Amino acid sequence: MSLLVSLAPLDNRALATVCGAMDGNLRLIESSLGVAIRRRGTEFSLEGDALAVACARKALERFRYLALSGDLALTDEQLHLTLTELAQSSARSGALTGSAAADSQFAALEAAAGPIALKVKKNDLTARTPTQLAYLHAIQRHDITFGIGPAGTGKTFLAVACAVDAFEREQIKRIVLVRPAVEAGERLGFLPGDLIQKVDPYLRPLYDALFDLMGFEKTTKLMERGTIEVAPLAFMRGRTLNTSFIILDEAQNTTPEQMKMFLTRIGFGTKAVITGDPTQVDLKKGEPSGLLDARRVLAGVPGIAFTQFTASDVVRHPLVAKIVNAYERQSK
C-alpha cells in the first residue's frame, strides 16, 4: 500500500524536529514499523503493509503535534513510546477505518470502566496498552492487586503512580515501598554500611519512580518525615499498616512464608500492590516463589485481582520486547 501524507503547514524548525537529525526519526519509523518513507519538503510518501502505513501516518502526525507544541527535539523516550503505543494499537485493531485504525479493545475497556486520570507530576502519564489500563482499574477497585509479567511492562511504575495519586487525593496517609533483599548472584554481606545502606541499591528503582512522579524535593521531605517509607521485606514482620498504600516489588523473590507474612500486614483503609516477574527468580535452586504460590492459592478470592502482562505490553526500548520473546521461546 502507498500513501501520501502532507504535514503542511509546517515551518523548517518544526519539520526538522519531526524528521530528526539526518532524518533519523524517519529511519526509526521505518525500522520499527517495516515501512519505506520518502520525503519531499512537507510531503511524505509511505509504502508497506496497510496497518504499518496507517501506523506510520499516525506517528508522523503525533511527531508534528509534539513539534508544534514547542518541543525543539524529540527525546528517545518520546519516539520509542509513541511508536510502541501506535504499533500495539494497530496490531489490536486488525483493520483500517477511514484514515486510521480503530482501537476497539482499548476503547471498549475505557468505555466500560471509565478513563484513568492520575494526580501526579508527570502530566502525560497514561495507560499505553489495554493490560495497563486493566491494571490501573484493578488497583483502584481492589484492596490487593498482583501485577505479574516481564520487565518493562510498567508494573512497578504504574503502582507507584497509583500510590502517589492516592496520597495527593488524601485517600491514604502513608506510602510504604517494600522489596526483598535477595541478591542476583551478588553477596549482600560484603556491601559497606549498615543493613539500610546495604539494601538501598535494591530499592533504587522505587526511588527513581517517586522522584519522577512527585519531584525530588517533595519526595525527600516526605521520606524524612516517614510519610514515605522504603523498607526491606524483613522489616515488615509484626506490623499492621492502616490507611497506607503498600507496594511489594520483585515479589518473585519472596518465599511462600514471606508472601503470607506480607499480605497479613494489611490494615483498614490500606491498598497493597504486589509486582513481580516469575522468569527472574533469584531464590536458591529448588526454593518455591511466593509470587507463584500466591497466584495458585489466592486465585478467585474476592477483593484480590491478578493482572497478567505479556511481552506485547513492554513499553521500554523496542529491543526489550524482542529479548523477552526470545527467552520465552527458549524456555518452551
What are the SSEs and their pairings?
Layout: E1 2-6, H1 12-19, H2 24-33, E2 36-40, E3 43-47, H3 50-68, H4 76-93, E4 96-97, E5 100-101, H5 104-113, H6 130-141, E6 144-148, H7 155-168, E7 174-179, H8 195-199, H9 204-214, H10 216-225, E8 228-232, E9 244-248, H11 256-263, E10 271-276, H12 290-297, E11 304-308, H13 318-331
Parallel strand pairs: 6-10, 6-11, 7-8, 7-9, 9-10
Antiparallel strand pairs: 1-3, 2-3, 4-5
Helix pairs in contact: 1-3, 2-4, 3-4, 5-6, 6-7, 7-9, 9-10, 11-12
What does this protein look like?
The chain is of the alpha/beta class. The chain has 13 helices and eleven strands. The chain has a six-stranded parallel beta sheet. Strands 1-3-2 form a three-stranded antiparallel beta sheet, covered by helices on one side. A hairpin with a 2-residue loop joins strand 4 and strand 5. The longest helix is centred in the N-terminal third of the chain and has 19 residues, at 50-68. It is elongated, with a radius of gyration of 22 Å. The protein starts with a strand and ends with a helix.
Percent of residues in helices: 40-55%
Spans of 5+ residues with little confidence (pLDDT < 50)? Answer: 95-106
Order of the strands making up the biggest sheet: 8-7-9-10-6-11
> Overall mean pLDDT score?
82
Q: Name the beta content range.
A: 15-25%
Helix/strand structural class: alpha/beta
Q: What can be said about the biggest beta sheet?
A: 6 strands, parallel
The gyration radius over C-alpha positions equals: 22 Å
Our count of helices gives 13
Order of helices and strands: EHHEEHHEEHHEHEHHHEEHEHEH
Query: Quick one: how many beta strands?
Result: 11
Distance between the termini: 36 Å
Which geometry do the CA atoms define? elongated
